[in-house]
Amino acid sequence: MKKEELLKDLGERIREIRKDKGITQLQLAHSIGKDQQSIQRLEAGNINPSYIYLQEIADGLSITLLELLQSPAKT
Fold first, then answer.
1. Which phi and psi angles does 19 have, rounded to 5°?
2. C-alpha–C-alpha distance, residues 63 and 69, integer Å
3. What's the CA gap between 27 and 7, in Å, rounded?
4. pTM of the full structure
5. Per CATH, the architecture of 3-69 is what?
6. What is the DSSP secondary-structure string of 10-62?
7. Residue 42 CB coordination number (10 Å)
8. Beta-carbon contacts of residue 61 (< 8 Å; ≥ 6 apart)
9. Any residues with CB less than 8 A from the CB of 62 and at least 6 apart, and which?
């Protein structure tokens, strides 16, 4: 899988979790000290986030980093 595809998949996973929790991009951004545009770029797969950034996202979503990185079960 190409880097671009992996980043897009990660962004979609973050968006899905965020929406399932009823959190807006702005709310997530504020909870972790970022701006809304940073979350938008992350969810679009336009940035390659650092380990620390991913941990902050997981904390902002009240999940573990492992939960963030796991692919959802396909049914």
1. -65, -40
2. 10
3. 22
4. 0.90
5. Orthogonal Bundle (1.10)
6. HHHHHHHHHHHTT--HHHHHHHTT--HHHHHHHHTT-S---HHHHHHHHHHTT
7. 24
8. 14, 17, 18, 21, 23, 28, 68
9. 21
Compute the distance between CA of residue 67 and CA of residue 41 in angstroms, rounded to an integer. 21
Does 7 have pLDDT greater than 70?
A: yes
* Tokens linked to 3: 């880097």
| pLDDT at 17 (0 to 100) | 97
Q: Please report which confidence band the pLDDT of residue 75 belongs to, taking 50, 70 and 90 as the band edges.
A: very low
Q: What is the average pLDDT across 31-50?
A: 97
Residue 4's pLDDT is 94
**Residues with Cβ within 8 Å of residue 14, at least 6 apart in sequence:** 42, 43, 57, 61, 68
